[in-house]
Hints:
Elements: H1 2-59, H2 76-96, H3 101-122, H4 133-165, H5 167-175
Helix pairs in contact: 1-2, 1-4, 2-3
Amino acid sequence: MLKSSWFWLLVALGVFWSLGAYNRLVRLRAAIGQQFVSLESVLLQYQEVVQQAVTSASTSPQLWGSAYLPELDVDPWTRLQVSAGLLTVAMARMQSHPLEPDSTQALQDAGAALQQAWASLIHPDAYYVNVPEALQQRWLALDLLVQPEVQRFNGSIADYNHAIAQYPAALLATVFQFRPAQALS
Length: 185
């Protein structure tokens, strides 16, 4: 009788520990999604700046300039708009699949393309254009705002990855297919 009660006590402890560990992993995975929502709100502001820059350029023809960069095969305004659209698509993909490495890589690539497009647009040697100073300052402010959000997002990914790598929880992570996530750079 004594052996039977100890056995059931150990089984009950194992079940309760497993439920607690599983709930912790689920909470950490949900925290990644919540952190991405706050990161996404900052990233969407880049789209607003791009739209304001294009709107100001379309209402002021002198902002367009007449130069053309043959090595790009496209004018810098189109490149900027396409890059902003790709960033929006990458954010939508990341929102639905925040733990997939492909989503993370697509977001990083789209962000880098947008930064390059903006830099080529405002660079005085590459293209003659007069992007309003207020928009250039807002872009720089967004660059500063996005860094802490990326760090918080990466912190939640590090916590999640650490939790699924710990020994007892790693067994549950394997059984329930919790995969490691990739941090943004």
